[in-house]
TrEMBL record:
Coiled coil: none annotated. Keywords: Sigma factor, Transcription, Transcription regulation. One of its GO terms (biological process) is DNA-templated transcription initiation. Residues 108-159 form the RNA polymerase sigma factor 70 region 4 type domain. This is RNA polymerase subunit sigma. Residues 17-73 form the RNA polymerase sigma-70 region domain. SUPFAM superfamilies: Sigma2 domain of RNA polymerase sigma factors, Sigma3 and sigma4 domains of RNA polymerase sigma factors. It comes from Algoriphagus sanaruensis. GO terms for molecular function: DNA binding; sigma factor activity. Belongs to the sigma-70 factor family. ECF subfamily.
Amino acid sequence: MTTLEFSYSLNKLSSSLKPFAMKLTRDVDDANDLLQDTMVKAFTNRDKFTEGTNLKAWLYTIMKNTFITNYQKMVRRGTFVDTTDNLHYINSSDSLIENDAYGSFAMDDIQEAIDKLEDVYKTPFMMHFRGFKYHEIADRLQIPIGTVKNRIHIARKLLKEDLFVYRHKN
């Protein structure tokens, strides 16, 4: 395959690699960078491609390996190595200490959000949270099981909306 044919094939397949790049990075700019890195690596290593094999699979492999390599570099960059006599990682999870302030605020917000629920939603939700089965809740509240499921679903939805600020926090 000539350089021109190879370049044309790369260009043709680049659009099918974009969704895979998005799946890996979950960011448009990072996906574009990953796609560009993949194409550059593929073009510079075109002599390693065996004609007659699956070019698309080869490109997917390059992309996956590039992503993994970049991720490992990022993790290593974020790790500080102490070169004193102790020779240990400063940010090791074994020595992680938290002050629980964030957790305390979150629990207060969760309790406040639950308290704001109307009783028709709060009661079945709290019973389910405490371990009651749907049929047990239906028997105790003397309502149909479908109503129990619906009210718990609505309570979860309302809580999710009210607590959206905690969605992507650790």
